[in-house]
Design brief:
342 residues; alpha/beta; Quinone Oxidoreductase, Chain A, domain 1; Rossmann fold; 7-stranded mixed β-sheet; 6-stranded parallel β-sheet; 17 strands; globular; binds NADP nicotinamide-adenine-dinucleotide phosphate
């Protein structure tokens, strides 16, 4: 099969191209999935470079040699003997597993879900990693109708869906944009109440405070690593959910704790994957709610560009690293004819 193989960490993931590898053989409890689509994300860049917390000797993920990739959609090619009654050969599935930038991937049943009728593989792939956004709004921040929610990295995969979910639960949403062009495209394509361009200095914060009539926002969903700035924009008793550090280039912030006390602020870190492994019943509730919003059309992926074949994964990672992307990239892995036959 073709796959994006990482024999050693790659300083510039935009240069990656597919190699020929043996099709993987599933272990006793694994499904073999023929991948039709994959969706590169920020974490894939860090995985490829060896800069992610999962490139960790104790946990042992993503050590060269490995196949890159995480979010995918595809079709069940073979089943383990212990297969659940819910999945059969030929079912369309989506999920996340290291090794998804390939034509085939081996996964445990817990890593895949059936694609609901009415959703295409492309849509499912684009949304496969975004249950974290739903969970952060509904289960972690517990956003209430009428609250004001500010989202950093709002053009990104997680951020764009954070905005959609917050709107769906009746909040007012301020989306933060990194540059003029993205701000323009967000104003056109996203249903939010304000798009504010984050520029050097504090002018953008004044715009946030003006939007809230000087009170500050109730909730910040932070995808980029901006807790100090978030505190300045928050109302008394405000909440911050820390989702990611896309802007920090691996250097974490130091925050003065007295600033939290002065505004009675709650900061919550949220690690979706680990939380799901520890609390599977809660994970199921999250997926039920998330899929419900997807199926009734309240959540729709914001697709970016056109990427055809595993040959385009390097370009996709380059575009992500260059911050060109608004929404989600989906790379078509299987050709139209094959998808039609699957
Ligand atoms: N908590 C969890 O369980 C969990 C799960 C998955 C991912 N994550 C993390 O969440 C973060 C967001 O993930 P994502 O998949 O949404 O990423 P993404 O699609 O690449 O989006 C990140 C957004 O951050 C903004 N950004 C600001 N400075 C940036 C910089 N220097 N480099 C790149 N982007 C920058 C970009 O918007 P502008 O250019 O408009 O500023 C971009 O749209 C990542 O740190 C990821 O590792 C966390």
């Amino acid at each position: 099969m073709k796959a994006i193989h990482i024999p050693s960490y790659a300083a510039d993931p935009s240069t990656l191209s597919p190699s020929e590898l043996p099709t993987p053989t599933p272990k006793g409890d694994e499904y073999l999935v023929r991948i039709t689509h994959c969706s590169p994300q920020h974490a894939d860049i860090l995985h490829a470079q060896g800069k992610h917390q999962n490139n960790n000797a104790k946990r042992g993920w993503c050590f060269p040699p490995f196949v890159l990739g995480y979010d995918f959609a595809g079709v069940v090619h073979s089943l383990p003997s212990s297969a659940s009654a819910e999945l059969k050969k030929g079912d369309r599935v989506f999920g996340a597993a290291i090794g998804a930038f390939a034509e085939f991937v081996c996964v445990k049943g817990s890593a895949i879900r059936k694609i609901p009728d009415g959703l295409s593989n492309e849509t499912a792939c684009a949304m496969s990693g975004q249950a974290v956004s739903y969970a952060s709004v509904v289960h972690i921040a517990k956003v209430q109708p009428g609250e004001i929610v500010m989202v950093s990295g709002a053009s990104g995969g997680l951020g764009s869906v954070c905005c959609m979910v917050a709107k769906a639960v009746g909040a007012k949403v301020i989306a933060l944009a990194g540059d003029e062009e993205k701000a323009g495209s967000m104003r056109q394509n996203m249903d939010v109440d304000a798009v504010i361009l984050m520029k050097e200095g504090t002018d953008w914060m004044k715009k946030v405070m003006n939007f809230t009539n000087g009170t500050g926002v109730d909730v910040v969903l932070d995808n980029t690593g901006m807790v100090d700035d978030a505190i300045k924009c928050l109302a008394y008793f405000g909440r911050i959910v820390i989702l990611g550090f896309a802007a920090r280039k691996g250097i974490m912030e130091a925050v003065h704790m007295n600033k939290l006390l002065l505004k009675s602020i709650t900061v919550i870190g949220y690690r979706f994957g680990e939380s799901g492994r520890r609390f599977p019943d809660e994970l199921q509730r999250i997926w039920n709610g998330y899929l419900g919003m997807l199926q009734d059309g309240r959540l729709k992926p914001l697709l970016y560009g056109r990427y055809d074949g595993l040959e385009d994964v390097g370009r996709a990672l380059g575009d992500l690293a260059a911050r060109k992307v608004s929404g989600k990239i989906v790379v078509k892995v299987a050709g139209e004819e094959e998808v039609a036959r699957l």
